[in-house]
Amino acid sequence: MGSVNRTSAEQEIPISDYDLNYEAYGSEDALVEDIIRGLKIAGGCIIRNAFKQDTITSITEEIRPFMANTDAVDGDFWPKETRTLNGLVSKSETFTLKVVGSSMWHKVSDYFLTSTLRGHWNGQDQLTSVSKPQLNNTIAFRIGPGARDQAFHRDDIVHHTWNGAVDKYELGRDNGFTMFVACSPTTKANGATRFIPGSHLWDYSSPPPTDNSTAVYVEMKPGDCFMMLSSVYHGGSANTTTDDYRLIVATVSTRGYLRQEENQYLAHPPEKIKQLPMWLQKFVGYTISHPFAGYVDLGDPLIVLNPEAGDFVQAGY
Ligand SMILES: O=C(O)CCC(=O)C(=O)O
Ligand SMILES: [Fe+2]
Description:
Elements: E1 4-6, E2 19-21, H1 28-42, E3 44-48, H2 53-67, E4 82-86, H3 93-100, H4 103-113, E5 115-122, E6 125-131, E7 134-143, E8 176-182, E9 194-195, E10 216-218, E11 225-229, E12 234-235, E13 246-254, H5 264-267, H6 270-274, H7 278-284, H8 301-305
Parallel strand pairs: 2-3
Antiparallel strand pairs: 1-10, 3-11, 4-7, 5-6, 7-13, 8-11, 8-13, 9-10, 9-12
Helix pairs in contact: 1-4, 2-3
The structure holds 2-oxoglutaric acid and fe (ii) ion (FE2).
Fe (ii) ion binds next to loops.
């Protein structure tokens, strides 16, 4: 088992609330319920043993040739020792089917990010429109020796999210949801993601802490994962080793009517997307967000991608 390395004397939120073991659950729905509970309380939730070792090996092998060619990213959002790889949906089939396609992750994502516009008027008719979450981006992060702490931040700046303080989680606060999957061990020494439990409930005018004393370091073994609401303060941490590279892969979802952080239509050859199951093609972005958003010729973009599918695809809106 990995561990959660706490640097402060005692956290207010018991770790058992957000450190779960996939193998301890007889049903996925029971696990999903506890993940949702943990996320509401802490803003992040670890699920140990969520992915099989052969899945992790395949993902690591499939991204390896691309990863070898990545350069440091300009700017100071990441330290120069960090390498990122983007657009994983068309680079690793295993990642896409098992991680982006994880039913556990989708159930939680649907819970936090499905939008329902109830009772909008069309003349004297009142209608309800449901917009399901979509893919926001996919990315691998490898933190190399010598990297400094990444600054604490919230990922939901992408969608200009700005919330006030609440005592208890209120559905609707979030515009993004992430699952990080460990492909290498992640340790306090090699750059484990660290986060501030409870900070998803803070007023957004409050800055993040200036030190790591209240941070939880998400130490994981390959196959463990960490889910996180985009409203929680977090960041990669320093890699103080001389030879240990920390590798995680991430899938991120957002609300169906918001702009995707990574442009999925240009990031991937459409032929690659067509090879995915229809429901994943839709999730990647080839669908309508009701009402009206995303049409081509007033029809469903899934038809443009799969003309042969005909009536199978629900046309129009
Ligand atoms: O590398 C990590 O652990 C986290 C990276 C991250 O939060 C980001 O780049 O937005
Ligand atoms: Fe982040």
